[in-house]
């Protein structure tokens, strides 16, 4: 799941851009954030990002891919009883947040 999120951040962030990984914990969960200042995602594409085979805007899908990565990341997070969300601004960057419960056996 981390490899998928980092791969997406690298694909859509220009050379010299920033990718930030942040991990914090509470008593009950771990929060992981992968944030970039890349090209971002258009608002109308955000609800479909975790759909299988979805590749979004043609500008974003210029790189090779089958549109499965985020669907797989979502599946992994769900199998660990977690949640994944995304915030993005077109032209400004994207932030994926994963929250995983600490008390689940993996």
Automatic annotation (TrEMBL):
<keyword id="KW-0902">Two-component regulatory system</keyword>
<protein>
    <recommendedName>
        <fullName>histidine kinase</fullName>
        <ecNumber>2.7.13.3</ecNumber>
    </recommendedName>
</protein>
<dbReference type="Pfam" id="PF02518">
    <property type="entry name" value="HATPase_c"/>
</dbReference>
<dbReference type="GO" id="GO:0005886">
    <property type="term" value="C:plasma membrane"/>
</dbReference>
<keyword id="KW-0597">Phosphoprotein</keyword>
<dbReference type="GO" id="GO:0000155">
    <property type="term" value="F:phosphorelay sensor kinase activity"/>
</dbReference>
<dbReference type="InterPro" id="IPR004358">
    <property type="entry name" value="Sig_transdc_His_kin-like_C"/>
</dbReference>
<keyword id="KW-0067">ATP-binding</keyword>
<dbReference type="InterPro" id="IPR036890">
    <property type="entry name" value="HATPase_C_sf"/>
</dbReference>
<feature type="domain" description="Histidine kinase">
    <location>
        <begin position="1"/>
        <end position="104"/>
    </location>
</feature>
<dbReference type="InterPro" id="IPR005467">
    <property type="entry name" value="His_kinase_dom"/>
</dbReference>
<dbReference type="GO" id="GO:0016036">
    <property type="term" value="P:cellular response to phosphate starvation"/>
</dbReference>
<keyword id="KW-0418">Kinase</keyword>
<dbReference type="GO" id="GO:0005524">
    <property type="term" value="F:ATP binding"/>
</dbReference>
<dbReference type="InterPro" id="IPR050351">
    <property type="entry name" value="BphY/WalK/GraS-like"/>
</dbReference>
<keyword id="KW-0808">Transferase</keyword>
<dbReference type="InterPro" id="IPR003594">
    <property type="entry name" value="HATPase_dom"/>
</dbReference>
<dbReference type="GO" id="GO:0004721">
    <property type="term" value="F:phosphoprotein phosphatase activity"/>
</dbReference>
<keyword id="KW-0547">Nucleotide-binding</keyword>
